[in-house]
Design goal:
By secondary structure, the protein is mostly helical. It contains 6 helices and 2 strands; from the N terminus they run αααββααα. Keywords: Membrane, Transmembrane, Transmembrane helix.
């Protein structure tokens, strides 16, 4: 998920039917991500990006682009180094939870990864508190699971 969240917008090509169909299913998120990647570029340590770019005004309506993917926001705003650190940390956390058979917690993380395609705030613990599941003590959870049987 983490790799696809950045790779699909990066390689997006409106002339390829697969990409346009997938972009339509994802309500234009890949084309918006591609627009931001082309406008700002990917750097090692990131740079500030605008939340919304206004393209034009048609009557009372504004036509705009916005980064609506946490993956693209992290990659552009914080850079490739931070993006890779987060990816590696999530990967090892998922391996740790899977090895301890903590399926519920693993499902929460997978749900967060899916949600990150559609929400730009899922990387922020203060706004999206479900991320706190990444910091739970798995030893405590495992001992609680072992002692919760019927006596």
């Amino acid at each position: 998920m983490f790799v696809l969240g950045a790779a699909l917008p990066y390689f997006f090509n409106k002339n390829i039917k697969f990409f346009t169909t997938l972009d339509n299913v994802m309500t234009g998120r890949f084309s918006m991500g591609h627009y931001y990647i082309n406008k700002y570029g990917i750097s090692l340590f990131g740079h500030p990006i605008a939340n919304i770019i206004y393209l034009k005004k048609i009557g009372p309506y504004l036509i705009y682009q916005l980064v609506d993917s946490a993956y693209i926001r992290i990659l552009l705003q914080y850079g490739l180094v931070v993006y890779l650190i987060i990816f590696i940390a999530l990967f090892f956390r998922c391996l740790q939870l899977a090895s301890k058979n903590l399926v519920f917690e693993l499902c929460i993380i997978v749900s967060i990864l899916v949600c990150s395609f559609f929400e730009r705030t899922t990387y922020n613990v203060f706004i999206f508190s479900t991320l706190l599941v990444l910091f739970i003590n798995t030893e405590t959870l495992q001992s609680n699971n072992n002692t919760s049987g019927i006596n």
